[in-house]
Amino acid sequence: MTAFAAVDLGASSGRVIVGRVVDEGDGPRVLLHEVNRFPNGPVRVPTVPGATAGAVAGPTRETLHWDVLALYRGVLDGLRAATREVGTLAGVGIDSWAVDVGLLDADGALVANPVHYRDARTDGIPEKVFATVPAAELYARTGLQVQPFNTVFQLVAAQGTAALASARQALLVPDLLGAWLTGTAVAEVTNASTTGLLDATTRTWTTDVAERLGIDTGLLPPLRAPGVLLGHVRDDVRADLGHHAPLPVWTVGSHDTASAVVAVPAASPEFAYVSCGTWSLVGLELDAPVLTEASRAANFTNEAGVDGTVRYLKNVMGLWVLQETLRTWNDAGLPADPPDLLAAAAQVPALTTVVDIDAPDFLPPGDMPARIAAAAVRTGQTPPQSQAEVVRCILDSLALAYRRAVRQAADLSGRDVQVVHVVGGGVRNELLCRLTADATGLPVVAGPVEGAALGNVLVQARAAGVLHGSLADLRAAGARGLDLRRYEPGGPGTPGTPHWDAAESRLFP
Ligand code: ADP
Ligand code: LRH
């Protein structure tokens, strides 16, 4: 038995999970055990006018940040617990949400808490960037979807700030934590592919694009593939963890979605996936990027996967909308118990109200029920009235968006899709899984819940020489330990695929 620690930082919680690779004669499999979970989310922090002595007080601004030090503490606590549990770990791997960076100054110190990708500082920035580097040119090079939060837009938005002026290196969140553990600063390539500054074909930095945009290319660290040794945990940290043997840190698919896709328990290549957590990432695994104009118009992204694969996918707004709805109700003193609300939503007639869940209105934190009502009115529908109707509207709208994304991905790439795999926390939402099967007209296989952690462990285990072979071999090892659930179109409480055709043509004429 060999054990690894997977650090997986999602937008709503961080976790440290021990993955044991065991083989009882029927082939290797991975057993996951969570040893620490800690909350994560945006923190709104104001600037203080006149923070510099003698400065003219400017208007107060508020910025959404991540509390990265609390996350680091959660990681260290988790690694300590993992060490207590298994004695000696064969490695640590770190993955997190994409795009956001911590800036380090010339002393290597963190300049400020990383800004959260839902902050409004990038409003209007994509248009400004496209005036210098046209959108079509950027897509042809990077293959990346346009989201206001792409790192390239964040760095342009930060131009002129004191923080960026003092920065010498920009580290994506998993790379920042990896650097704190080992002292080695790199950019792991799957996550680097979400910056908008990585060439989708050569997988090298597009330094020429950065220079045209006035971005200091010195900020960009050396690139590393997933599945290599980053370094060893520094002695002082290791002593603090109580880990006596040298502790390697392996690069993994450090973009959580890249790790989640590794863990998709697909038996054949004709699969689509929904990596279903705070976001829903819906798409296909390809051998080469799709850089066509039609793909750009549909805003599909070509992110780097493990073993040179391409994650050809669309960002669907995801369970974030439900999370923020529950938070809004909770703050207002209304009932906000997820199991009760999901049970009530299952009784609401399907497709009564559907909204374009990917509309930019749903990106920032806030009152989602009010935004849903406004979206319903804009499209000539009656807003959902009861809490159950609001929840049902969110789930129907998500399933409709999954259906569109799966079909578009298949059309744009010329690939056939026979099954949809759902991985991530959304696996626990049975109603959403049923609706997804019905909307797509395809069987859904749900599991694993901790997809990113499983993919993280699989890649570490191969790097450490404990597992061997191709991505398909890793998937087979990952699948062996799983309890998967299958949903067919036309399941209980679903309207039948033709009703989704009608709803789609109504909402997206
Ligand atoms: P992330 O990694 O982005 O933080 P997760 O993969 O942990 O997200 O998924 C979180 C989501 O999973 C929650 O927003 C919630 O909607 C869903 N979820 C988690 N547990 C349950 C449950 N028991 N029933 C229904 N949904 C659940
Ligand atoms: C999901 C995710 C997604 C990105 C978003 C910023 O956690 O990494 O793939 O687009 O966060």
What is this structure, in a nutshell?
The protein has 509 residues and is an alpha+beta fold. 37% of the residues lie in helices and 19% in strands.
Instruction: Work out the strand percent.
Output: 15-25%
Radius of gyration: 22 Å
Small molecules held by this entry: adenosine-5'-diphosphate, 6-deoxy-beta-L-fructofuranose
- Overall helicity: 25-40%
Q: Which parts are unreliable, with pLDDT below 50 for 5 consecutive residues or more?
A: none
Keywords:
binds 6-deoxy-beta-L-fructofuranose; single chain; seven-stranded mixed beta sheet; 2 domains; 19 helices; alpha+beta; Nucleotidyltransferase, domain 5; binds adenosine-5'-diphosphate; 509 residues; four-stranded mixed beta sheet; 37% helix
Notes on the protein architecture:
The protein has 509 residues and is α+β, with helices and mostly antiparallel strands. It folds into 2 domains: 2-47 and 56-250, Nucleotidyltransferase, domain 5, CATH 3.30.420.40; 263-447 and 484-509, Nucleotidyltransferase, domain 5. Helix content is 37%, strand content 19%. The chain has 19 helices and 19 strands. The protein has helices spanning 68-86, 125-132, 135-142, 151-157, 162-165, 173-182, 189-192, 207-212, 235-241, 256-262, 293-297, 320-331, 338-346, 368-378, 387-413, 430-440, 451-463, 471-480, 497-507; strands spanning 2-9, 13-23, 28-39, 43-46, 62-65, 92-96, 101-104, 169-172, 187-188, 223-224, 229-232, 248-250, 271-276, 280-286, 301-304, 310-316, 419-423, 444-446, 485-487. Strands 15-16-14-13-17-18-19 form a 7-stranded mixed β-sheet, with helices on both faces. A 4-stranded mixed β-sheet has the order 3-2-1-6, with helices on both faces. A two-stranded antiparallel sheet has the order 4-5. Strand 1 and strand 2 (13-23) form a beta hairpin. Helix 10 crosses helix 17 (451-463) and helix 13 crosses helix 15 (387-413). It is globular, with a radius of gyration of 22 Å. The model has no long low-confidence stretch (mean pLDDT 97). The structure holds adenosine-5'-diphosphate and 6-deoxy-beta-L-fructofuranose. The site of 6-deoxy-beta-L-fructofuranose has 13 residues, from helix 10.
